[in-house]
Design a protein that fits this description.
Largest sheet: 9 strands, mixed
Number of helices: 17
CATH topology of the largest domain: UDP-N-acetylmuramoyl-L-alanine:D-glutamate ligase
Number of domains: 3
Oligomer: single chain
Distance between the termini: 40 Å
Radius of gyration: 26 Å
CATH superfamily of the largest domain: Ribokinase
Number of strands: 19
Length: 505
């Protein structure tokens, strides 16, 4: 009889027969980095019955942060199956074990003692599992033998480097995980305004047909097209998972193209305000990708990035003047596509209670982006190339340039991202540099990473959380955002909290 199962129906067929004579005990978990604590857990579980089934969470549902899972589902299944006291191993097809409990109907369901207080479980899955056990009139037992945390062991031996350990050490000095949860809960009441262009990111997946017979042109077949919200709209989606009410002030085309899509895809707690720009389309950034490797081969933008006409600018500035004082946090993502003029930038800087800014360089504004229009900003996030372009300095040490630029623009906190080298925060008041490791372990598409980091880090900095935590929080958001093509998903709050919980063990 085989030991590893992938089909719940097949497993049910076998166990139903055996259940007539034997008590079935079910254990469920990730079981990443199998250790002595797991063995002890299985041993104690087996004492309560004659058949031990272990169901395993698949890779796609393991949201415990970077480097998780450390081992693939195949290896985790094989490792557990090698343990003699385990009778059957099943690869679950869901986040929780509820379906397994309902289908197999074990006599006993075993969890480690650390899960007894399921009210502390961030995911809410343990509560669902306990309810499922009660519905089938089974018994839940919490094993009390020695316990170890796989996450803690992995963290201790992670390859994030010494900087990660320093950050975590500094965070632990100031915050328990409970305090972090409480702080994040307080984000709900924040009044937040997001200002910036709304962008539609279009991905055209292609396969190469070959070269044209008449001219040296690569010919591609359009296989599939996908569209996602970008710009200020996606920032609002990220923040909507952490705050009760979000307001957006943005721009769409004269004819309102994609307006229905924007309103439909934005959460109900996002108030989307906009102006229509004359003689302009809603910004569409079309990217052609090789379907096999998802490599971008060409970008075609539908855009009019001229500055607003004088009457449009006046109306926009009136709206700004009225709105800005009403919000605790103003986040500006200036893509340089014509929405925010120099005068508008001055108004934003003057009237915002707390201003977080990203004024980025992109293909449409190289050499003309608007970062210098903003002074007296509370926090700014840019990448290293953007900083060097602003100061026209290719060779100087990055930290020196950060201090210089922060002083020139009167920026209280300047964050510079460096891709796979992580990020740096410079605090003007403290005259201190804080470094943060990179956490993106499987980058699929980097578009939107800056928006994700800006979103969550701004919440932390505005709440005056320490620099180490603010950088880590933003970096985890950025790492999550690059795991899929386009802005398919908003930042998952539960996943971020789970990552933090495991890192702080």
């Amino acid at each position: 009889m085989k030991k590893i199962y992938f089909d719940i129906k097949e497993l049910k067929k076998i166990t139903s027969k055996l259940k007539k004579k034997k008590k079935i005990v079910l254990c469920h978990g990730v079981f990443d980095l199998l250790h002595i604590g797991h063995i002890k857990h299985f041993q104690e579980a087996k004492k309560h019955g004659q058949l031990l089934i272990v169901s395993v969470t698949p890779d796609r549902y393991v949201n415990k942060g970077p480097l998780k899972p450390a081992f693939t589902e195949k290896l985790r299944l094989e490792s557990i199956a090698a343990i003699g006291i385990v009778d059957f191993v099943y690869l679950n097809d869901a986040k929780s074990s509820v379906k397994v409990i309902e289908k197999i109907k074990p006599n006993i369901y075993c969890k480690g003692i650390e899960y007894k207080n399921f009210k502390e479980d961030i995911s809410g899955l343990i509560k669902e599992e306990v309810s499922a056990v009660k519905k089938i009139n089974a018994k839940i037992i919490y094993t009390k033998d020695i316990t170890f945390s796989s996450s803690k062991l992995i963290n201790q031996n992670s390859n994030f480097g010494a900087q990660h350990n320093t950050n975590i050490g500094n965070i632990k000095k100031n915050y328990s995980f409970k305090k972090i949860k409480d702080v994040i809960e307080k984000f709900k009441s924040n009044k937040i305004l997001i200002i910036g262009e709304t962008i539609i990111d279009q991905y055209v997946f292609c396969e190469a047909l070959g070269k044209s017979g008449k001219e040296p042109v690569l010919v591609l077949r359009d296989v599939q097209t996908e569209e996602y919200l970008g710009g200020a709209a996606v920032i609002s989606r990220h923040l909507s998972n952490f705050c009760n009410k979000i307001s957006v002030l943005s721009m769409v085309g004269e004819k309102g193209e994609y307006l229905k899509k924007i309103k439909k895809e934005l959460p109900k707690n996002v108030n989307f305000r906009y102006i229509k720009k004359k003689n302009s389309p809603t910004i569409l950034k079309r990217r052609f990708l090789d379907k096999v490797g998802n490599h971008k081969v060409l970008g075609v933008y539908k855009i009019n990035d001229d500055i607003l006409e004088k009457n449009e600018e006046r109306n926009f500035n009136k709206i700004l003047t009225n709105l800005l004082p009403k919000f605790d946090l103003v986040i500006v993502s200036d893509y340089g596509h014509g929405l925010i003029s120099k005068n508008s930038a001055k108004i934003i800087c003057k009237l915002s209670k707390y201003l977080a800014l990203n004024a980025q360089v992109n293909a449409a504004n190289v050499g003309y982006h608007s970062l210098r229009n903003y002074k007296n900003v509370d926090s700014v996030i840019i990448n290293s190339t953007e900083l060097r372009q602003n100061l026209r300095d290719k060779n100087e040490k990055l930290e020196v340039l950060m201090k210089k630029f922060a002083k020139n623009q009167n920026i209280k906190k300047l964050v510079v991202t460096r891709g796979d080298q992580g990020s740096i925060l410079y605090s003007t008041k403290e005259k201190k540099l804080t470094y943060c490791s990179p956490y993106a372990t499987k980058a699929v598409d980097k578009i939107g990473a800056g928006d994700a980091m800006l979103s969550l880090m701004s919440l932390c900095l505005q709440a005056k959380l320490n620099n180490d935590f603010s950088l880590l929080f933003g970096s985890l958001a950025a790492a999550q955002s690059v795991e899929s093509i386009g802005n398919q998903h908003s930042i998952n709050k539960s996943s971020i909290l789970k990552s933090l919980e495991n890192m702080l063990k």
